[in-house]
Amino acid sequence: MTRSTLSRRAFLARSALLGCSAAASPLMTPVSLAAAPWDTRVVVIILRGGMDGLDALRPYGDPDFAALRPGLAAARDPALDLAGGFGLHPALSGLMPLWAQGELGFVQAVSTPYRDKRSHFDGQDMLEAGTETLGSGQEGWLNRMLQQMPGVEAETAYAVGRGEMKVLLGPADVADWTPDAALRMSPQALQLAELMMEEDPAFHAALSEAVALSDDGSGIMAAEQSMTRDMRAALRGAPHVKIAEFVAERLRGETRVAAFSLIGWDTHRQQERSLGASLERLTQTLLTLREASGPQVWGKTAVVAMTEFGRTVRMNGTGGTDHGTGGAMVLSGGAIRGGRVLGDWPGLAEADLYERRDLMPTGDVRASAAWILRAATGLDRQVMESLVFPGLDMGRDPGLML
């Protein structure tokens, strides 16, 4: 399909005349349904705020853990025990069937090269840029990967959610979608828009999609543009469920890369309550992706959930934890070689901690992402280390993918 020559600015000007809301993000990006150049699906979830990997994935087997986190050690549940002396947070218990089937895994004691200042903004910028230093580039590592692949078009990759997904920022075509996008058009305006775009297949398809995603059942939209029953149900659900449903639907088609974020991981106070709620959302997100994508697509999917940094080993005076360094990475999907906790565990003795306060990072979170991308796309190691993640040494292949 050839892309329309109508400019985005001209189209938005026309939309304004029709009374369209510019919030309908499918109208903001070019849409084409070309065949993707590879078959494996990669979903990247940014856990914004700094997930506490010592609580999400509790290192019961470490002799110093009980003294540092006595409440967690006392709450050990043998039913949630994993390999190598680790156990899941109770809010992740719904993922135990995935663990048993080899569709869930973890990498402990990992981080980006970011150190010491512990700023969310800088940490997330470095995580999504995939670079060695701050300010060394504006492109995201997923976009740099897409630039190396032939035949990539907007429908190949989706950035999903309200905020900017810097991990997909760059010149490679990427489509965007926001779960609460709203398009309000009268039947007369809709008919006029369809007439205007009748000879422009790309924008006509985009309009149809935007109308479908925005229909709230009020009856003002044309009946032929209504969504499927499953999509309607998803759009009435919680935001993270809506996003997971939408991503799964796209993965069943031409989309091969999707990225979105989950917030709520900055647990300075009352961590027991707030972290549990965030982990439940992560559990629901992964299970929704699995169910909605279907066995065939899920079997070709790798989900990578990563965070900008971990948190302090010791709790603070308000029952929370502060910004740290080493953390945990969550892997899921039918294409993942799961049922394992990977990473070089550094220990929790005070002398083993980073600056005597944080979990010591022994691995680079970018290396795990690089091995997954390499397995999914076939790009060689030199391209991954020099262009996708500049300056990275991927190290030995950990065999993350089937």
UniProtKB/TrEMBL annotation:
InterPro entries assigned to the protein according to its UniProt record, in alphabetical order: DUF1501 (IPR010869), TAT_signal (IPR006311), TAT_signal_bac_arc (IPR019546)
Pfam families membership: DUF1501
This protein's UniProt keywords: Signal
Span of the signal peptide: 1-24
Family matches, as PANTHER family: BLL7424 PROTEIN (PTHR43737), DUF1501 DOMAIN-CONTAINING PROTEIN (PTHR43737:SF1)
Protein name: Twin-arginine translocation pathway signal
Native organism: Marinibacterium profundimaris
